[in-house]
């Protein structure tokens, strides 16, 4: 950090491209902590209805009756416990692992890895994990029986394992 950057506000430093060191690290957010703070809601796609799943989330795989769990841009650092989460779908609550045809959006988080338990979630059809911090495509995706597509663009991938 330069002497100049220590005297100007962070907003100005960002405008002028001067790097600042954060005084304290950001709080890690796990999917379990997020679920404890707010209900995780499944969006069901209805034909003819507008679809808003957040800026930057891909919509070309969405179909009438399809289900979306949007956890993009939530500051997530861990998905541990995701298979045990309860989600709200309409006026009902159900375990996420029991739902079928779910597109799981995890874009723009701080994920460095994905938990093995994702491999047991056969109802996930599309997995969107772009703009995170993954260094490798996890082999567990090969064991996800319902998976039709996966997106890992914008990570730090240096390794693609043999499936």
Q: What can you see in these coordinates?
A:
With 163 residues, the protein is mainly β. 9% of the residues lie in helices and 20% in strands. The chain has 2 helices and 9 strands, in the order H-E-H-E-E-E-E-E-E-E-E. The protein has helices at residues 10-16, 31-37, and strands at residues 29-30, 41-44, 67-70, 76-78, 86-89, 92-95, 102-105, 124-128, 149-151. The chain has a 7-stranded mixed beta sheet with strand order 6-5-2-3-7-8-9, with no helix packed on it. Strands 1-4 form a two-stranded parallel sheet. A hairpin with a 2-residue loop joins strand 5 and strand 6 (92-95). The longest helix has 7 residues, at 10-16. It is globular, with a radius of gyration of 18 Å. Residues 1-25 have low confidence and may be disordered.
Q: Would you kindly provide a brief summary of this structure?
A:
The protein has 163 residues and is mainly β. The protein has helices at residues 10-16, 31-37, and strands at residues 29-30, 41-44, 67-70, 76-78, 86-89, 92-95, 102-105, 124-128, 149-151.
Key phrases:
disordered N terminus, 9 strands, mainly beta, 2 helices, about 160 residues, seven-stranded mixed β-sheet, two-stranded parallel sheet, globular
């Amino acid at each position: 950090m330069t002497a100049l950057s220590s005297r100007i506000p962070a907003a100005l430093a960002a405008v002028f491209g001067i790097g600042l060191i954060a005084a304290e690290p950001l709080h890690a957010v796990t999917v379990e902590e997020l679920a404890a703070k707010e209900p995780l809601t499944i969006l069901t796609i209805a034909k003819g209805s507008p679809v808003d799943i957040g800026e930057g989330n891909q919509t070309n795989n969405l179909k009438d009756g399809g289900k979306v769990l949007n956890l993009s841009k939530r500051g997530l650092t861990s998905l541990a416990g995701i298979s045990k989460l309860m989600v709200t779908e309409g006026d009902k609550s159900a375990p996420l692992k029991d739902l079928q045809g779910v597109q799981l959006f995890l874009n723009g988080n701080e994920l460095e890895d994905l938990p093995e338990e994702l491999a047991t979630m056969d109802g996930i059809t599309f997995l969107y994990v772009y703009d995170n911090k993954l260094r490798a495509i996890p082999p567990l995706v090969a064991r996800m029986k319902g998976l039709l597509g996966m997106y890992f663009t914008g990570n730090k991938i240096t390794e693609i394992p043999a499936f």
